[in-house]
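User: Good morning. I'm curious how beta-D-glucopyranose would be positioned relative to this chain. Could you predict the structure with it bound?
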Amino acid sequence: MKAIAVRPGQPHSVHQREIAKPSLDKYPDGNGVLVKVLKVGVDATDREINDALYGNSPPGDDYLVLGHECFGIVEEVGPKVTRVKKGDYVTATVRRPGGSIYDKIGTYDMTSEETYYERGINLLHGFLTEYFVESDDYIVKVPQGLKHLHVLMEPMSCAAKAVHQAYEAQRRMKVWSPKRAFVLGSGQIGLLSTLVLKLRGLEVYTLARAPGPHLKSEIVAGMEATYVSTSETPLMDLVKKVGKADLIIDATGSSKIAFEAMQALGHNGVLVWTSITGGKNETSVPSDKVNIEWVLGNKLLVGSVNANREHFEAGIKDLALGEMMYPNVLKRILTNPVAGLDNYKEMMRLLVEDNSALKVYVDVASE
Ligand code: BGC
Ligand code: ZN
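Assistant: Good morning! Here's the predicted structure, ligand included:
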């Protein structure tokens, strides 16, 4: 069967290759699920892997099958599988457990080991192919009514985790009740974080460079949040207008902005960093100023990566609620379908060159 892969370490090596179709034999314990891939989303991580800034092949292979945002339909299940049945729509979590205590309790997204295993990213092949098999521990059912949002499940899980982590960490405050949030970046994680925060009742400002109106500003407005163009109103001007934020999610992909955000956080607040920045950029920060503000304000910085089953399930519920609250808004994120695996060059071109491509995904097969 066809697969789209790279040779990690070798820039611009994306290519199509033949790999063996997997079968349930891989799971003699009876827990295997064979999934026919329908759609796969790609994001900046895939671009960085193709730029050889990130990612590794599975041991013994000199290639890595890409794709970590999958949507498919169950074709066959082993006798012990209870979570899903043939014909169900599903997605799969990305990370697989290592050996730490966190991995052992299902929170593999919090592994304390340096080595992490992620399908399509690090040490495990991904989903940009025709079929995959997986233990049902990592298969998450997607409701029929959300099938039109297909590849958003994985990015949504990351947004759900980021916000959940913020609230978990803020239990330190005993009575934390955030009012105002800033979301930095209006890519998929920024927009989906905007949704999660709106559903938690916050006043949300979503910031990105380009002045509106445009698709992203319309999606933000469609969720009753406020879009702010930082070329018109820089972050610190927004702070002067509306005050500092209780919660900030950075999803810009810029480490410079991640540090700048430290100055926009209010007392007792929490800043969550979610960007994968595979480059080598450096920036200078007013460190004395930030240091004293953070100490005197009891502020907290949290890094958040990946997501486990719990976040996928919570994210899927939020997508369902989001559809009720803001009908027909979320599907607007899904801007750029690519027809079939054969068109993988077009997929990469959109990722690399087309700034207006909010979400690129491959239509791998129809049911
Ligand atoms: C993926 C996450 C992953 C992270 C780091 C992101 O693009 O969506 O699942 O943990 O990259 O590899
Ligand atoms: Zn991703």
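The longest helix spans residues 153-169. The domain at 2-142+335-363 is CATH 3.90.180.10 (Quinone Oxidoreductase; Chain A, domain 1).
Let me know if you'd like a different ligand tried.
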